[in-house]
Amino acid sequence: MQISIIGAGVSGLSAGCYLQMQGFDTEIFEKNPTAGGLCTSWNRGEYTFDGCIHWLMGSNDSNPYFQLWSELIDMSSIRFVTHESRVDIEVLNSRDLHGSRIFHLYTNMDRLKEYLLDLAPEDGEQIQILINAMRRIQSFEIPPMIKSVPDLLPFWKKMAYIRHLPLLFFMMKWKNITNFSFAQKLKNPFLREAFELLFDGDDLPLLIMILPLACNDKNGAGYPIGGSKRFVQKLEDKYLSLGGKISFNREIKNIITENGEAKGILFEDGASVLSDITLSAADWNFTFFKALEGKFLTEKMTELKQEKVFRVFHSAFLVSLGIEGTFPDQSHFFRYPLPSELHSPDGKVYSRMEVHVVNYDTELAPVGKTVVSVKFYTEKGEYWINLRKDDFEAYQEQKKIFADQIIRCLEEKLPGIKGKIEEIDIATPATFHRYTHNWKGSTQAWLPSENLMARPAIGFRVKGLKNFYYTSHWVQPGGGLPVAIKSARDLAQVICRDQEKEFVIQPW
User: Cα Rg for the chain, rounded, in angstroms?
Assistant: First the structure.
């Protein structure tokens, strides 16, 4: 049985791997000359600039996602780094007991607890609640849930999930506790301000922070040396070793449908390919509103388009710099207040800056040099997308002007850095959209706000269309690499069930 897969991102490659293991004949069609989708990096001179991975859920066997990655990748071949601090946050209006404005979010839980209690002994009760929550997360047994697809389980197996009710109750309790609501319970002004700034001023579920921290404590959410491109290359190699095929530079025009059945793919150059099953692992908006021409929309899809169900994760303006120097005493990841507001051409006004010093990955820069990146998130990605389409010259001018402003701001924090710049790369929301088709230039699908525990945004099947399936990081709020691989694995199980095949994992 021939299956055509649209998109060689992490979901497309993972789905291809799992389906090849089941004996299906698959081919992936990718619009770009390389695989990876959003999980990518690129070269500029001697430097490699990364657009994705800062940390990976499942970097060792303390985290259940390690089991999924290990089905497709030899995880022992990857060296991971777990940082002492997840992020250092400079507050504006308060100081700690030692006169510092820097808040350290340590990844070791014992150290974090000791640090927080030293900062704010008057908040000991709330600090203990926070630490207990992270310890509780570590106690839950999650692997069976990661590997199963609830809709495919017989009733007696679903009943076995009763023993996981404590996890459900825990998630229900914490899903509505945000960094702002938690901060309001704190008495110490420095600690309160630091928690309000955990997500740079956004009010989001605290679970977004405590879940990865609980993993960091056991080194289960580290950074893979070599970054995104090296990681994706291992997935691509696995897929090809299983007999899969990838056709690059194949831009999709639409999915061929006839009498309520998906028949194959029509490309922009007029060529086409027919297959028994068509599987899209591409952007959801591109898939349903362009490739399927809006013919098979549900009421929920219309609401998703209007952002009534979920909000789209922000896009980003990313300035990457190749720097002569390594900044050995500088935090690898920090946020700080700007001395004056920074106005983006898209109308967004920023009062804080996020800086990433990648001096811990020597594969991305020559010896004695490092990559420094500055990222600004924006909900106004369509400004950049439309500007690039309508007036490319103005687009180039505006992004350079904004990047120059950013570099001047960075110079105030890291004096002398401007004179050490050897390479500059500027990625805008239009870059993310052009390269991946991701709706509005989103960098991580749906924002995991108040809908953190919501049901899937998009199903694997489409009502009224046979022989078509969908998977990507858009399936579930939060997006990212964990959603990408799990949704691909789940879909492979669904296809096996539909084709009356047993789902198996081939051992290494």
Answer: 23
Q: What is the pLDDT of residue 144?
A: 58
The sign of the CA dihedral 385, 386, 392, 398 is negative
What's the distance, Cα to Cα, between the start and end of the chain in Å? Answer: 24
Q: How many angstroms separate the CA atoms of 128 and 121, rounded? A: 11
| Strands 272-274, 245-247: pairing kind | unpaired
- Per the DSSP assignment, residues forming a β-bridge with 280 are 6, 470
Q: In what order do the strands lie in the sheet with 333-343?
A: 102-106, 85-90, 333-343, 349-357, 369-378, 315-324, 421-427
Using an 8 Å Cβ cutoff, are 86 and 214 in contact? no
| Secondary structure (DSSP) of 16-64 | HHHHHHTT-EEEEE-SSSSSBTTS-EEEETTEEEESS-S--TTSSTTST
490 and 16 Cβ atoms separated by less than 8 Å:
no
Residues of the chain with pLDDT under 50: none
Q: What is the 3-state secondary structure (H, E, C) of 366-391?
A: CCCEEEEEEEEEECCHHHHHHHHHHC
Rounded Cα gap, residues 216 and 209, in angstroms: 11
| Angle of helix 189-196 versus helix 109-119 axis, rounded to 10 | 130
| pLDDT of 214 | 94
278 near 468, Cβ under 8 Å? yes
Strand ranges in 57-126 using DSSP code E only, listed in sequence order: 80-81, 85-90, 102-106
Containing 433, the helix (H) or strand (E) segment is helix 429-436
Residue 500 makes CB contacts below 8 A (sequence gap 6+) with: none
Q: What are phi and psi of 114, to 5 degrees?
A: -60, -40
CB 477 within 8 A of CB 451: yes
- C-alpha 494/C-alpha 486 separation (Å) is 12
Q: How far apart are CA 417 and CA 327, in angstroms?
A: 10
C-alpha to C-alpha distance for 496 and 500, rounded to whole angstroms: 6
DSSP symbol at 75: G
Convert the pLDDT of each residue in 418-437 to its tens digit: 999 999 999 999 999 999 99
Q: Round the average pLDDT of the chain to a whole number and report it.
A: 93
CA–CA dist 495, 469 (Å, integer): 8
Q: Against a cut of 0.85, is the pTM above it? A: yes
| Residue 153, Ramachandran bin (φ over 0: left; ψ between -120 and 50: alpha; else beta) | beta
Burial class (CB in 10 A: 0-12, 13-18, 19+), 25: middle
Residues 480/473, Cβ–Cβ less than 8 Å: yes
Determine the pLDDT at residue 153: 65
